[in-house]
Amino acid sequence: MRIDFRPSGICLPDVDLWLDSTEPCPNCWISHGHSDHARGLHGHVFGTAPTLEIYRLRNPETAGASPECTPVEYGEPFEFGGARLTALPASHILGAAQLLIEFAGERTVYTGDIKLNDPLCGTPTILAACDRLIIESTFGLPIYQFLDREEARDRIVGFARETLDDGISPVFIGYPLGRGQEIAHVLTNAGIPTAVHGSIARYIPVYERAGFEFPEWMPYANRETAGKALVVTPEFRNYLEASGKNIRIAYVSGWAVLDNARARSGAEVLIPYSDHAGFDELTAIVEGTGARHVDVVHGYTEPFAKLLRDRGVDARAPLPATARGSVEQQEG
Amino acid sequence: MDTLAEVAERVASHSSRLRKIAILAGYFRGLDDADLDRSVRFLSGGPAAYVPATATLFGDGESRTLSIGWATLRDSALPAIGIDADTFRLCAQEVGDLGEAIGLLVRRRTAGEPLTLAAAEQLYAQLYRARQTAGKVRILEHVFSTYRPLAVKYFVKVIGGSLRIGLQAKMVEEAVAAATGAALDEVRAANNRLGNLAVVALAARHGQLHEIEAELFHPMDFMLAKPLDSAADLAGPENWIVEDKFDGIRSQIHFSNGRVVIYTRGMDEVTQAFPEIEGAMQKVPGSGVIDGEVLAWRDGRALAFTVLQQRIARKRVSRSMIESVPAAFMAYDILLRDGAMLVDRPIEERRAILEDTFRDQPFPLMVSAEWDPVDAATIDSLFEDARIRGNEGLLLKRRGSLYEPGKRSGAWYKLKRPYATLDVVITAAEQGHGKRATMLSDYTFAVRAGDTFLNVGKAYSGLTDPEIRELTRILRSDAVGKFGRVIAVKPQVVLEVAFDGIQKSPRHKSGFALRFPRIVRWRQDKRPEEVDDLERVKALYESSMNLTAPHE
Q: Which is deepest, A93, A120, A321, B129, by most CB within 10 Å?
């Protein structure tokens, strides 16, 4: 099967299908709802039900008839363009899926954004054996190893309780989709009064429909922050700091592995938990699929491909590396 | 070491200075004397281990730093980590701190054994003693494969001498005071006298601070002068003593019956670079500590700092170098004489003892001239005279004042004027510390050279917080690359910088570096094509050389 790697997405001309195209295309597989994957007014889109719901929420121009949306279930194969396609859970965020493409006797898996460890909210990853793997490498250097789900939960709840006991409001910086809901889910289920910023809260109903509970969560209100844990977006931190409120900030992210994340995020406390795979998880995914050919897209593509080659895997980075500056901005 | 590492991580996770000090004080309280000594040294950049002078590579005198370079640390880490050198370099670059990078990379790979402070100190002592790189590598390989990742992280940071956890030396002093119940002033004063906070901490714990005396051949902190823009700002000109402000190397000479050591403000020993001063000081009877300036001197006047710089560049100097750039020592204060501490005696008394000490001593030993001004106008004309003599400006010292080591108290003022200003463009920016941690506040800047820009220096301050915030936004959007904490940017933002001189510098591609650059203003009205060019920098450098260069 031919695979055409382009900056705007991956094209499978034999199947007439695009993977996570950010520009309009006739038929598009959307791996998950983050805007660097789910964007553009396509003719026909495929994805899990939560992914498609988030895609419509985030792209109001899709409110009309177009595009045609076909929701797919994890593990249920369907035919398209002469190929057999199967969505597999990817742990990353709610609804995130890998795509197994069986075509002309060859099995190819596109991971989308993925983590191997169990997520706080989402469906645990299931790996499929394949010949060829297209994998992301947001954290494709061995310095990046993260807390597991239980450790992260303990650190989030521990920091919140400790800080509230000191009479200070704990603030968690999370990305609007994924991390923000995971943190709010952990805090509310630990019985901690939690106020959630609007741009994170707007996706809570999607999570609730998927069965994740947020008991007694409250919308963030400017005058009522005392005695509560606050879950806000990175952009909101500057405002909170300038407001002179009695707060202490924690940054929950893969980038929080590094001490320099303090300077970058403005947080005092670093909780290194990500919805992406850490380095050991990435190599375990490669090994787990048994793929003989690996294409690395997103993140530390060249160095990660080289590390895989050192381990005897035929790996390459088909696209030039992302500019360093923009990797930093990526949701991690 | 495991506990110290955890404490350091907690200190790093609080931006409040008071919380940092409280965490540290709590830790110090629980330690016995030996561990208090070790932990204070590790946390305050003191010697990692005390090793008899004869056992070190450095000949006489103890060196304060373990000289272990980047490559040695890398080569020691690779076997434990199992990655190649290129990936290691990339990881270290992303992390921006070698100790932290190695600590991250040895996770899940070390035996995870505990490391006590005593055992860590022994390892440092072995590193001091190891004469060959191979020996050092063996010790470090053992460390990296044996102890817990967090202990490894801080073990390496201590070698580098800087922990980068937002903990300044002054805060460690405060924590020592809080932990021992001693008065902060007394802890500071004792540390200024002795220059070894670990010894001070033990004395504080046992109520023996008053017994701490300055010791010969342990450099004390220097007293510093506050900047003053104009003599007109000075209350009561008649209350001040005036001296020329020389542009040399501020130095402290310790001498005792023939033994002489010259320390700089960085506490480096530079004795060997100035044998004529060492030789002259060997003939001064008795013992003492003298504060002053090492200068290049010819025909009754100081030569430009750029000339003197040729002498510092090498450890041992040739006879021809001594002849072409003769060095002299201009003394202006005395802190210790024949066992008596003088810092608490008034300046007039110290001055008399200094003059007595240098009486009849020939060149290159001198005592700086002083004047008693009666009004601001006298000070102005003295300033002009100092400039004509090729000096930077004036130092004003309050009558009756004491010598306050390590302080910039306002008992001394320096009056100088900028040498020139240049318009430059920012080429790289770095995050600041503390309050400015989220902002790009440190700028590398360049002048024009044909179609390109070449760096001539780096400056830290001079802009207001709102300006820095605005610049941070602009610079981030102009980013073209990243190296650890440093962001390279498209040359867009123009600054006007003032500075005190120009020197040759191999660090910058331009071949020049500005001395003490500071930002005067952000030139939003200028475009990068309009900044000054390398020719102007060269011309300024050459005119400074002509003014005071030796006659060939």
A: A93
